[in-house]
Amino acid sequence: KAGVTQTPRYLIKTRGQQVTLSCSPISGHRSVSWYQQTPGQGLQFLFEYFSETQRNKGNFPGRFSGRQFSNSRSEMNVSTLELGDSALYLCASRAVVYNEQFFGPGTRLTVL
Amino acid sequence: AQTVTQSQPEMSVQEAETVTLSCTYDTSESDYYLFWYKQPPSRQMILVIRQEAYKQQNATENRFSVNFQKAAKSFSLKISDSQLGDAAMYFCAYRSRIRETSGSRLTFGEGTQLTVNP
Fold first, then answer.
1. Residue from the list A56, A88, A101 with its beta carbon closest to the beta carbon of B102
2. CB-based contact (8 Å) between A60 and chain B?
3. Exposed site from A25, A82, A94, B105, fewest CB < 10 Å?
4. Helices then strands (H, E): number in chain B?
5. Which residues does chain B have within 8 Å of residue A30's beta carbon, measured at their own beta carbons?
6. Which of B43, B50, B52, B112 to mutate to test the interface with A (most CBs of A within 10 A)?
């Protein structure tokens, strides 16, 4: 089975732009969660999607949004980028009946 | 809200020796999961071991074992016979079993950078 994939792997944007990141979960996994990892704040939960519905949301501003498609693929969007949005963005997928979450390799976003 | 604390930013161990990484957490819930994840330089998060709070028996996965002390809210990871490939950042994580409110949400500690010396 293929693992969780994230595209693109690296991204450079400038302040004020917007960005869309994509995550394809493991086949059969309906839950997709997103995390932001920075040296200062560590790993922080952004949101979770399950069956195309946002099930849970972390403490991030409204500039961060996401969605999930019928094939469980998920996208997250960050509008009006700020320097502080530079981070590694990780997504993780989970099958309903299992406890483990499997992480993708991440997207490294740099905001200049 | 739950919090997870790893008080050791860095640890080092000699190859073939044993090392223990510490983790404490705070929660008002009685039913939850605890995890240790490993993040090597590639940044890929890899699950090392999992513990269900309702199980008294400590989880073990090959060279990795945990010491779960529910009353003390402590969850340490012991790595035996350390190998060079064990060098990585290790994260302790908490997940509630109350799906309605928490879903798959993981709360992570700050991480412990483990160095393995040959």
1. A56
2. no
3. A82
4. 1, 12
5. none
6. B43
Which residues of chain A, if any, have pLDDT below 70? Answer: 97-99
- Contact B105/A at CB under 8 A: yes
Query: Which pLDDT value is given to residue B98?
Result: 76
pLDDT at residue B95 greater than cutoff 70: yes
The pLDDT value given to residue A85? 97
Question: From CA B98, how far away is CA B79, in angstroms rounded?
Answer: 30
